[in-house]
Each structure stands twice: as C-alpha cells, then as structure tokens.
Amino acid sequence: MSDIILDVQNLSMHYETLEGNVLAVKDVTFNVKSGESFGLVGESGCGKTSVAMTLLQLQPENSVISEGSIKLDGKELIGLSENELRKVRWDSISIVFQGAMNAWNPVIKIGEQIREALREHYPENSKQTNIDKINQLFKMVGLDESTANRFPHELSGGMKQRAVIALALSCDPKIIIADEPTTALDVVIQDQILNEIKKVQELLGLSLIYISHDIAVIAEMTDKIAVMYAGSIVEIGPTSEVFNSPKHSYTKALLDSTPSIKGEKKKLKSLDGEPPSLINKIEGCSFAPRCPNRNISCKPERDMKLIEVGHDHFVDSCSLGENYE
Could you tell me the CA-to-CA distances from 77 to 91, 131, 274 in Å, in that order? Predict the structure, then answer.
C-alpha cells in the first residue's frame, strides 16, 4: 500500500477579475507521504497560499479550479460538495492560517472556539470529553489549561499562535498546512513556535506542508521542498539535495540572499526586478526576464516542464540549457 497521503496532479487555478484571469496556480504537481514534512517556498505572490487554499477549497468565490486532481488518502477532493468538504476539513486536513493574531473571534473565549470545531466533527462527545481534549491539546503546545477561559486579546502573539496550532490539531488530522505560521512574531518566539510544530509532528506522526518565503526556515523544517515562481513549481526535491545542489537560477538566487552562520562569510545578493503579472498567459520560462544566467541557459520561448536531474529531484527544463531540448 502506498504511503502517499496527499497526491496533487497538474493542479491549475485562476482568479476571475475585471482585468482578466489571474493564473495563480499553474500545473502544480507534488505529493506528501505519511509523516513527511513538505515545504513550499518563494517570493510573496508566487502562489504558495493559493495552493494551500485550493487544497482545502477555501479560496475566494472568484476562483476557478480549471484542471487537476487533489487526492487525500486516495479520495478525490475536487468536485465534492460543501457538506462533503466540511467533513474532510479539520478531520483529515487542517491549516494554521497566516496571521493567527486575527484568526480568533475577539468576543468568544479561546476554549469555546475550539469546542465548536469538536462539536461539529464529534457531536457524540460529552462536554467533559471536549474539555479534556482541549486541555490535552494545550499541554501539547505549551499552554496552560486556563487559556481556554481567556479571550484572544488577553493572549500574547506567541500564545495566540500556539492556540491556533491546538485548534488545527483538535480533530486529529492526518496532514496540517502551516501557512507562514510565524508571521509578525519576534525571532525568539518564532524559534519556539517552529520547535513546537516539529515536536507535535513527531509526537503524532503527522504530515506537514510548511509554507514560507524564508528558505532558511524551510531548510530546518522540511524533508522535501518545492520552489515556486509565478504560480509554478520550478524545482522540487529532497531538501538537502536542493540546498546542496540547486539547479534552477531562482533557487540559487533565494539561497544567495539568505545569510548563514556556517562556512566563510559572503556578501548577500539581491534579485533585480519583480515577479511577472499573472493576468496574461506567460509563454515559456517565466523567470527569463530576471534570470542572471539568461544569456547562458534561459530560453524564454521554450515551454516549461520538469526534468529529473537526481533521485526524486526535478527542475524546470528551461534552466538546464540545450542538452534538455
């Protein structure tokens, strides 16, 4: 039996706007195995959060999934009704939303908001069973039981974030999406939250999709990584392999812009230009206008496809030069 818990194939999604269709997710393919940590990394606007929202089908009303497949534990999610999706969300797959500080209803106590999710999925549970479950979750993420009786404004940013992780774990999902879970937190609290996520994942044997623009955090948190640019995956593979032997110029640029405490000192490099508009269809390599090596290998007119360059390591063929025509 396959140990793949989430299988995404050729997923494309666009937003319908007055100016035209914005192709936010373009032909995205990846899978996540049981107990695996999978990272999505790229600049703001590259499509990371759009992928996450599409997996849960929580994207805005003006979005359209034009093609592709999302299978969770072998069950196809695309085409399910809202009632059917409600049974899947939180129970099989959940999310730690970006900006957890605004994720809570300010006039309802934290514990009651978590109990609402438990009542929805486990209506047969007694009140005491739900209280015991919440206390167990809080202990797991490093919060005191008294947190359940407090309002969101009474918690610090780090406490709110821990409570959001507890909420995401409340219905025992098999896979959790963590979308920039340390946004707006100071570096000390960020480190604590990352350690909490890793500890909980190992304790429960969860699968994790970790989304971030910080490639250094992705390196610490994941087993496998996908680098996104302009709605597409341009490089994907084992995290250690991608870091030690990056093949795509965009991946190299991300790494060159990240400071390291190991090895010899080097000057950080910035990447000129901005990601392209996704309103109009991009022909060929979307990174070509910004590519530092475009005179060597980038071919704007060549259609993008992922080529295997190592064990389970794939890269956009546009960046590999003439040998991959």
Answer: 14, 31, 34
How far apart CA 48 and CA 269 sit, in angstroms, is: 23
Cα–Cα dist 132/283, whole Å = 55
Confidence class for position 110, pLDDT limits 50, 70, 90: very high
What does pTM read for this prediction? Answer: 0.90
Instruction: Pull the structure tokens for residue 296.
Output: 């060597």
CA 31 – CA 38 distance, rounded (Å): 9
In the Cβ-directed half-sphere of 98, how many Cα atoms lie within 13 Å?
12
Place of tokens 């996520």: 197
Tokens representing 243 are 């870091």
Residue 182: burial class (beta carbons within 10 Å; 0-12, 13-18, 19+): buried
Backbone phi and psi for residue 322, each to the nearest 5 degrees, phi listed first:
-70, -25
- Output DSSP code: residue 223: S
**Residue 131 pLDDT more than 70?**
yes
Tell me if 34 sits within 8 A of 196, measured CB to CB.
no
Residue 80 burial by Cβ neighbours in a 10 Å radius (0-12, 13-18, 19+)? middle
Return the pLDDT at 217: 87
Q: Is 167 exposed, middle or buried (0-12, 13-18, 19+ CB in 10 A)?
A: buried
Distance CA 210, CA 185 (A): 17
User: Using an 8 Å Cβ cutoff, are 148 and 111 in contact?
Assistant: yes
Cα–Cα distance between 123 and 154 in angstroms, integer? Answer: 29
